[in-house]
Design goal:
By secondary structure, this protein is an alpha+beta fold. The protein is 34% helix and 24% strand. It has a single domain, classed as Glutaredoxin. It contains five helices and eight strands. Strand 7 and strand 8 form a beta hairpin. The radius of gyration is 15 Å and the shape is globular. It starts with a helix and ends in a 5-residue tail after the last helix. It is found in: Cell envelope. InterPro entries: AhpC/TSA, Thioredoxin-like_sf, Thioredoxin_CS, Thioredoxin_domain, Thioredoxin_ResA/DsbE_sf.
């Protein structure tokens, strides 16, 4: 099974969707801390067992604002026990500015996660926004994309469905 997964990832690396760079081997990811919509402390470990598309963004970032609806639609289509779009705001003004933005553009499927300290940017080596990391079920980074993407494009959805369908998802 591991051989099939490696073959899948190598094949996908030739032409990944959304200009996603897939690493030859999964990489360890720093543990980052943030809060959820109830102010409860969370970490990336809370999402182990799922494929996670971790998107670092901010309301003041134009490309982030443009791609947010595509992330919302992706979560609406694939979100559940096996997959999670984790849109992590690094807005220094915190929760209310993000709540207002979600309401303004009609976000329906994304949960609210905030890292007002923006420490995740440095911890994850994501210097520039938006930055999106694809994490396997073990919390390891399979690949990343710097800059905006159309995350609900059919190629992306097909790619993620195939990844979700693998025994370990990475």
């Amino acid at each position: 099974m591991a051989g099939l997964l490696l073959l899948f990832l190598q094949t996908a690396a030739a032409a990944p969707p959304a200009d996603l760079t897939i690493w030859p081997e999964p990489k360890t990811v720093a543990e980052v801390e943030f809060t959820d919509s109830q102010g409860k402390p969370r970490t990336l470990s809370d999402f182990k067992g799922r494929i996670v598309l971790l998107n670092l963004w901010a309301t003041w970032c134009g490309p982030c604002r443009e791609e947010m609806p595509t992330l919302d639609r992706l979560q609406g289509q694939l979100g559940g026990a096996d997959f999670q779009v984790l849109a992590l705001s690094v807005d220094p003004d915190g929760e209310q500015v993000v709540r207002d933005f979600y309401a303004e553009i009609g976000i329906q499927h994304l949960e609210l996660y905030i890292d007002a300290s923006a420490r995740a940017i440095g911890s994850l080596g994501a210097f520039g926004l938006p930055a999106t990391l694809l994490l396997d079920r073990h919390g390891r980074e399979l690949g990343r994309k710097l800059g905006a993407a159309e995350w609900d494009h059919p190629e992306v959805i097909e790619y993620l469905r195939e990844l979700i369908g693998t025994p370990q998802g990475g």
